[in-house]
Amino acid sequence: MDNAKIKILVVDDEPGLCAGLQEGLxxxxxxxxxxxxxxxxxxxxxxxxxxxxxxxxxxxxxxxxELLGQIRERSRETLFILMTAFSTVENxxxxxxxxxxxxxxxxxxxxxxxxxxxxxxxxxxxxAENHELRSRLQKRTEPNPLIGESEIMRNIxxxxxxxxxxxxxxxxxxxxxxxxxxxARLIHTHSQRRDKPFISVNCAAFAExxxxxxxxxxxxxxxxxxxxxxxxxxxxxxxxxxxLDEIGDLSPKGQGDLLRVLEDxxxxxxxxxxxxxVNVRIxxxxxxxxxxxxxxxxxxxxxFYRLNVVPIVMPPLRxxxxxxxxxxxxxxxxxxxxxxxxxxxxxPAALQVCQRFPWPGNVRQLRNxxxxxVITTGRASVVEVAALPDFLRxxxxxxxxxxxxxxxxxxxxxxLLIRQTLTHVTRNRADAxxxxxxxxxxxxxxxKQYGLLDATAxxxxx
Length: 462
Fold this sequence. Notes:
The two termini are 45 Å apart. The protein is an alpha/beta fold. It has helices at residues 15-26, 38-47, 64-74, 91-98, 110-128, 133-137, 151-164, 180-189, 208-216, 233-236, 252-264, 290-295, 301-307, 324-338, 348-356, 362-376, 390-397, 410-425, 429-436, 440-449, 453-456, and strands at residues 7-11, 31-35, 52-56, 79-84, 102-105, 170-173, 198-202, 241-245, 266-268, 275-277, 281-286, 310-313, 345-346, 382-383. Helix 19 (429-436) crosses helix 20 (440-449). The protein has four domains: 3-137, Rossmann fold, CATH 3.40.50; 151-313, 3-Layer(aba) Sandwich (Rossmann fold); 317-397, Helicase, Ruva Protein, domain 3, CATH 1.10.8; 410-456, Arc Repressor Mutant, subunit A (Orthogonal Bundle), CATH 1.10.10.
């Protein structure tokens, strides 16, 4: 997304805090307005369409919860982040039910707020891909990792649409940067729970003793520092979806606690005695091989089967090289606008280098590389191989072999072998067919079957 086109409204009755948050977000390039009460905020919201509103819950007169309801009646696409003191954090449950994206406790950690704002806007961009929001907000959206015309991505899109229609538990597997959380949010957005909260928690981000309180909440006095009653992520997600990211890093105790909730549908808050029941859909994600972790005794087998009702495997970028040109095009659009540069495109040779590279960092690494190119190529409208980052040119210069990950479908291996032969051995299709030990007609059929006709553009007779 182009930060310069993002409009944010900050609402808080403390002028100093309000001004501080406004300035902190402006440094990120956003357009940020501020109001010190709900009436002023409503007036601003009637004059402009905001991507995001960040509001205090407890204010004189109209509360933040009431403001949320009034603004979302006018603009359903506007996202809300609520700020709340620990003494009123229980209001966060109601806020999430009313449609708030998330909440932050006071005092506000500006770094954490910036990250939450970024995630909220990325989520909004994904929703915009499927609704008229894109044109209404009149902004460029962040290219999401799931776009693409490759067969594997079309199959994943179909699977997401299918599982979204039920409440079945989903386990999303894939390397970092392949779009696991975005896939989870799309399932939620397309489901009957779309108007209820989507709550995420990174299981690797909390120590074992803190994760239990984060998931299930705690009562006042449950432990040192528990100065107030605090709901957990399960309660905040009631009626909606709970996304458990990096589930493979869950401790043995955490695995047992989670299994009991999945089996019984109830839990006790830390320090509490009463059972709490919630209606939550679980979507989990991991970049680990859970079957291997089960075999090694690092992950509970019964929990694995509870989570793995419908598996979705997000492919690494190297297995969907045909989608790279489209992703690069979207990233060029985004970063040309962000850095006020002219429209750029890759030369055919540079594009081939990008498609040959294995991208261990997946879409995230590709995005960073394209941004670097936009900044370093000045006024040039065509990006040649010489302008690519060093790691791409060095890899391509040393490329004499390619590797195949065990478990890769044979069709993918064959497709990669044909592509590499036409790229590094010979661009003459007759010679390539001979090198591969097949007829030229068979090669032509496979090029069509794998969608490589345009990508290879080989010369028939040289």
